[in-house]
Write a structure and sequence with these properties.
aspartate ammonia-lyase activity; 466 residues; Fumarase_C_C; lyase; Fumarase C, Chain B, domain 1; two-stranded antiparallel sheet; two-stranded antiparallel ribbon; Fumarase/histidase_N; 7% strand
């Protein structure tokens, strides 16, 4: 069974079990780019349902669309929001037309759902039209970015949860390793002693900062241009529609949306996406640094730092027996590099806007959703498969501290910089320990004083040194 649908370019035969129509089919055929259809980002599909529902409610309230038709459209939107029609959203993420194919995909699916609820056949658009009713007072140029922003707001919630959980995992290890003495390093050279717990706690703190930055960037997404229609003049929209549609959308979603004060500016502006992308890049940069640190601290086990042990997940070599690699930090690094590259995509696409529209929003949407989705998976994997299972080589890290020349800094308040530098140089040349030089040979300190100066508390709390 099939039906015939027509647009001004001609007719197409459509299987009768399909809810999208001729314009969606053209978009599906024209854009084979990523191979990833819109239904792979359920939040975007649901957001389209919310936007179309808010529009139908506003148009019904204003008498712009017959109440019976509007109510049928609203029922169709509810099916989309519930996720019942996910497989019907088939257009590729990256497409020409600034998202028109995706907007019409939503219009056609909702129109055919409305027709069914009213007892008509799919495609009987004289009763409920994708363009004249579902899309009344709308344009791709205001519905697509509004749905995009709503979908990002919804999508970011689980990503922020993942970051908070990673932060707590770092803090938990910070508490566990609170009294594990280790050597701090700058320039990859021995610096001064510290607690391994402090190192993990620092990683938790820096991830917590990212949650705050994402919250700030997400707040910018609440300003929308719904009701702007084509270029921001609200052409074809009923009087009062923009404010009313935004009010309905806020009530439906629980998100306090703000109608942009300048709809012409808002219709072409993509600054909020650049801001969010920059925050994602910032987090990716931090995660790269953390994972590089973890890989260094776990290096070895015999010929590296060997300060911590990572969970052993898989054999690390097809040729070297017994080798185990830090595969989770490595995959997080690679994910971070991808996100950093996609930020460049967002930047270039945002700068490519022309006059009253930026037609590059589809690639911006692809880049941001792909970044958030992959980053969330990477963050969860880092926590579950790596951080929670890390153990410390406490005796080894303590021995490295006591055998290091870097701890001569602890003696500077007693012996002065010049004499400490001479002691360090002698140790470097002779291979002797600081204890051998200071206590045994030069007798600059008693054993009791040495033990006092190099107790765990004094080593990790410089304020106690005096």
């Amino acid at each position: 069974m099939s039906r015939t649908e027509q647009d001004f370019l001609g007719q197409r035969e459509i299987a009768d079990d399909i809810y999208y129509g001729v314009q969606t089919i053209r978009g599906k055929e024209n854009f084979h780019i990523t191979g990833i259809p819109m239904n792979q980002e359920p939040y975007f599909v649901k957001a389209l349902g919310y936007v179309k529902k808010a529009a139908a409610m506003a148009n019904r309230d204003l008498g712009a669309v017959d109440a019976k038709v509007a109510d049928a459209i609203i029922l169709g939107c509810d099916r989309v929001i519930a996720g019942d029609m996910m497989d019907q959203f088939v257009t590729d993420f990256i497409q020409g037309g600034a998202g028109t194919s995706t907007n019409m995909n939503a219009n056609e699916v909702i129109a055919n759902l409305a027709l069914e609820s009213l007892g008509f056949n799919k495609g009987d658009y004289q009763h409920v039209s994708p363009n004249d009713h579902v899309n009344y007072g709308q344009s791709t140029n205001d519905t697509y970015p509004t749905a995009f922003r709503l979908a990002l707001i919804l999508r970011l919630e689980s990503y922020m949860t993942a970051l908070r959980q990673l932060q707590e995992a770092f803090f938990a290890k910070g508490r566990e390793f609170e009294r594990v003495l280790k050597m701090g390093r700058t320039h990859l050279q021995d610096a001064v002693p510290m607690s391994l717990g402090a190192e993990f706690r620092g990683w938790g703190t820096t991830i917590g900062e990212e949650v705050d930055r994402i919250s700030e960037a997400r707040a910018l997404l609440r300003e929308i241009n719904l009701g702007a229609t084509a270029i921001g003049t609200s052409v074809t929209a009923a009087v009062g529609y923009p404010k009313l549609a935004v009010r309905h959308l806020s009530a439906l979603t629980g998100v306090d949306f703000i109608l942009a004060g300048d709809l012409v500016e808002a219709t072409s502006d993509t600054g909020a996406y650049v801001q969010l992308s920059g925050v994602l890049k910032r987090t990716a940069s931090k995660l790269t640094k953390i994972c590089n640190d973890i890989r260094l601290l776990a290096s070895g086990p015999r010929a590296g730092f060997n300060e911590i042990n990572l969970p052993q997940l898989q054999p690390g070599s097809s040729i070297m027996p017994g080798k185990v690699n830090p595969v989770i930090p490595e995959v997080v690094n690679q994910t971070s590099f991808l996100v950093i590259g996609l930020d460049t995509t967002v930047t270039l696409a945002a700068s490519a806007g022309q006059l009253q529209l930026n037609v590059m929003e589809p690639v911006i949407s692809f880049a941001l959703f792909f970044s958030i989705r992959t980053m969330e998976r990477a963050v969860n994997s880092l926590r579950e498969n790596c951080i929670v299972g890390i153990t410390a080589n406490e005796e080894h890290t303590r021995n490295m501290v006591l055998n290091s020349l870097g701890i001569v800094t602890v003696l500077k308040p007693l012996l002065g910089y010049k004499q400490c530098a001479e002691i360090a140089r002698e140790g470097y040349k002779s291979g002797k320990s600081l204890h051998q030089i200071v206590v045994v040979e030069r007798k600059l300190l008693t054993q009791e004083k040495w033990d006092e100066m190099f107790s765990f508390e004094r080593l990790i709390n410089p304020d106690m040194i005096g």
